[in-house]
Amino acid sequence: MIIDMHMHIEEVPSLGWKMSADDCIRAMDAAGVDRAAVMTLTDLPGLNPAGLELIADACASHPDRLYGFIRLHPAHLQLSKDLLRQATTDLGFKGLKLHPVSTLQHPGAPPTIELVRLAGELGVPTLFHCGDEPMSTPLSIAKTAAACPDSIIILGHMGGYFHVDEALEVAERYPNIVLETSAMPYPEKIRTAVERIGAERVIFGSDGPVSSPSLERQKVVIAALGETAAALVMGGNAEALLGLAA
Amino acid sequence: MIVDGLVYLGISHFGYELDAASAITGMDGVGTDIAIAVPVHPTGADFGPVNDAVIAAAEGSAGRLIPLARVDPWDGEAAVLELRRAVLAGARGLFLHPSEEHFRINDLRVRPIVECAAELGIPVTVSAGFHLFAEGLQLGHAAEWTPDNAFVLTNGGQFNISGLGQFDAELALLNPNVHVQTSGIYREDFLERVVATFGPERLIFASAAPMFEMTYERKRVDLAHFSDIERELILGGNSARIFGIEK
What we know:
heterodimer, A: alpha/beta, TIM Barrel, two-stranded antiparallel ribbon, 10 strands, 17% strand, B: alpha/beta
């Protein structure tokens, strides 16, 4: 079972963004990916008021292929908490997505911490955009990890181009951190991550469909993790995080 | 013919290294015929010896390595003199690394060096995408100084894991002399859009090894959605044209 834990669906004509569930499915099929976590590129509430329905409809149209993560804006805290409850409890969403660069919300600030704690209480992980920009670095998100020990926090892109070593360091420090492999360009760092924090805390993602799940999958192949670790990274761990494990 | 648009040779002050023999072994492993080779930033920052070392490595490579000269604009007129010396010794292009040498690519100190390259008829390759030193629009500005000379940007002219650098990189590409390399660019749609918008002559395969991994960087081009003609240009035809490599 191959599971891509980071894909996007969005429709914001004013930004020129239009990537559909079918685009995701085509990219997944080309890459041999069975299932994917999907989320918008915009934050609710915000530019795309129909974002929740967009993801819910995509998942309903592709049962057993697509699983929703709700992308929220912590500054709208009460509404975001209500949406998170609705998404996970009523619509079957499997996770929370936060992008501190687009929301300008520091991961260590009270609204983000409160929202991530709620995600933990609801039994779903939080996927952070984690790269090189201020407020999205591993050390920034480590503040959340420290404040929310009962919430699983996924570092999407595992630190980007220049912060991968810091992502490894904070993952060693906080056992609730999981590293996700998309976009960052260093296959050998995936192997290092498995060696330092264990294969159980590393997951495959592509950031597709605008980046290539086929290419991103090759990054894990080149990392040469061995059969058991690769199976966990490519899908076994995601099955557990998405609540799909038997 | 497959041409890797960038490999670094030597032992870098910043902790990475690659020798010519290892580079060629890696090239053989992924089917690369020729690579454009540049010196690393040496400890002590004297670029003369490392330029000579890369030129010597190229001379001993049976045509597998094409050397570029690297200079530091903070050296002032001496940088121009070093470029002229290295070109006479065999260097076939200018390489600038604004981040490692800590200069802004569109600082006027850089202009005489870029103009000297144009006068000598050699292309300019710039390590691109670094905040403060080599941002997309800064690179586009510098490319305007010598509009008839090829100006090659590594890393798609950008480094941003949110995809936010691609817009300025595309504005830089409005300069007809700007070309971008594929190294490190995770957005397949950007690579494909460069070809669709600006033409396949503007995109160049490069691994930037050892910063990035040769096998994975080659797959960026192999797995993207290009026609055979486009892919041939990207994988080698464009570098052959720009660097005067005979097929």
